[in-house]
Input
Amino acid sequence: MNESVLPMLVPVAWYQVLAAVLFAIGAMGVLFRRNILVIFMCVELMLNATNIAFVAFARHLGSLDGQIIVFFVLAVAAAEVSVGLAIIIDVFRKRGTVDLAAANILKG
Amino acid sequence: MEYFWLIPFLPLAGFLITGLFQKWLNEKSAGLIASAAVGAAFVLAVISFFGLLSLPADQRVVHHTISSWIEAGRFNAPLAFLLDPLSMVMVLVITGVGFLIHVYSIGYMHGDSGVKRFFSYLNLFTFAMLVLVLADNLLLLFVGWEGVGLCSYLLIGYWYEKKSATDAGKKAFIVNRIGDFGFLLATALVFWTLGTVNFREIAERAPGLLEVGGGMITAITLLFFLGATGKSAQLPLYTWLPDAMEGPTPVSALIHAATMVTAGVYLLARTQLLYTMAPLTMFVVLVIGMATAIFAGSIGLAQTDIKKVLAYSTVSQLGFMFAACGVGAFAAAIFHLVTHAFFKALLFLGSGSVIHGLHGEQEMPKMGGLKDKMPTTFRVFLIGGLALSGVPIFAGFFSKDEILWEVFASGNVIPWVVLAIAALFTAFYTTRAIILTFYGQPRDRHLYDHAHESPAVMTVPLVILAVLSTIGGLLGIPLLAGGQRLKAWLSPVLGGGHAAAPAAHGAAEVATHAAEVATRSAAPHASTFHYPGLLSPFGHDTTLEMILIVVSVAIALIGIFLATRLYAGDASAAEKLRLSWGGLHRLLANKYFVDELYNAIVVRPIKLLSDFFWQIVDVRGIDGAVNGVGTFLRGTGDELRRWQTGLAQNYAVAIVFGTLLILAFVLWGRWAL
Output
């Protein structure tokens, strides 16, 4: 516990800015890229941006709660990847492309 | 006799067999089963008649309760039958004439595609009619009343491929609804005031609970009479009967001449105690009967369709019966009902035989000279015509004369004159029909050459009816010692002059029923409707009656003579008359334009109103609201579905901006608030 209350060499705000920037880059990628694989990677980027924020706060507040949540996020992300990649492969088999705009048959 | 209640169920069984097992029956067996059912009912009726005859006159009432039917509080209408002299007469006529008509139908309907349906309907009709006359309470009578109306509808529209036939069926049904509404209201009023619908209890309670000539009794009797005008085709509801001729001719004979249309007369006779307590209603009945008699009779003068002539004649003769009821001579009305059933069924079946022989032709201007081609039909038709015209010896003479006498003897001289003129018309149009059909030169060579006499299955019933039309009058010959048999037979129910007893007026000792005694002392019926001075101890002033008989014979002969002068020989005389009275002829030939009048003042407004409710209220209002909701939802859906593009990135944008909005609200919105 003693270790955890040590002052951080880098201020917590910097971590937050880094996380925000990474998150925004990921979000922009999700919104504007057309390749499903890239979008998928951007989603991973957003998840990890939040992980950074969680870890930074855990360190800053001297609590393990944030780090525990990171493990959950990693587990969920792994599960998501396995499902997501399967879907992507299937879309590719059906459409012959990984362009997300091609998978639009669920429109109203 | 104790099994008399089985009488209606025999035709019902016939109906069920011919109706349900059509697949396994052929035309012949269906006709035989149907006829046998009614024939068996007739045999049972005759047995019951002799059973009834063996009882003393004042005990001739047999009652049988089959089961309870409707019971609620004080209200009790059991399924129970009542056999008394009045219903006995009706049952004999229905089953007897009905049996002959069933047999005749086997020949007449031969080769028609729906014969089995036809016979099942006929049997159902006979059942309903028997329920009507045997019912011991008003509600059960109403069941029969509606049952015969239904069968009338079904049988008028029997040839349902023909639009005119289905229209006529609907017209008959709808016009009868107007009358039925009167019947139902009257029944409700009877229950309300007397607490019963049972005929015997009505007769017992009415004198004590209802004021003679009061508003309530007048309303009840007028409403019953409204029902009677619908069923019995009296003014103003008679228009359906001539149209009903669209049905097969045996139907016209059975339903629209002999039985169903007389149900109104039967109803009045059955509730005659109430009528004798309502002088105003009696006056209305007399006036309506008299007006109908002359009105329909005059229309009959100018009709060219042989069945239409007979139809208007039926309306006219029913008018005679109601006129008799109107002066309290219910027995005379029933007498005329019976003889009319004989000779009018004969005339209708005879005309059916002509139509059958001419392969469906009904227009008299195309007939002529048929007496050599169809000798049997000609002879029986002639007998029927003589009976209808009121030539002595034949049945119609006695009954019509009886009515004329009763009307005159009750002091109603003007109605007597009107009815006498109607009788003149009767003789005229009957003779005209006979001459145009059977005498002279054939006017349509082709039809004439192919004409043939009907088979024995049709002519034998005709001959039997002809015999009945000839001797049927013996039931009620006046003057003769021991005569007036029918009247004497009916007297326990209908009261009135007993041939062998002192006249009815004021003589309480004549009345056999206690209830009747009560009415007579309460309602001075006899003195209201009879001139006491005119009645001898034997019920008739012989000299005066002789004079009246001579007058009515003269009337009949004048009518026959005029028609013979006009129509026998060359047609120029009739043609000249028609031209010189063109307007009047048009008026008569077009039935006084009553149908057009009803169309204009009743049918069209109702149609317009229905159109309004259909086109405006229903289509625009109700359907509009329902469709409006649908259109609105579909419109919104159409707009909203554009938001679902199927592009995942569009949703992502929405998520991001949504999140940003929430964030913005959380961060700044709260402070702003």
Summary: Residues 12 and 53 of chain A are 9 Å apart (CA to CA). DSSP finds three helices and no strands in chain A. The two ends of chain A are 56 Å apart (CA to CA).
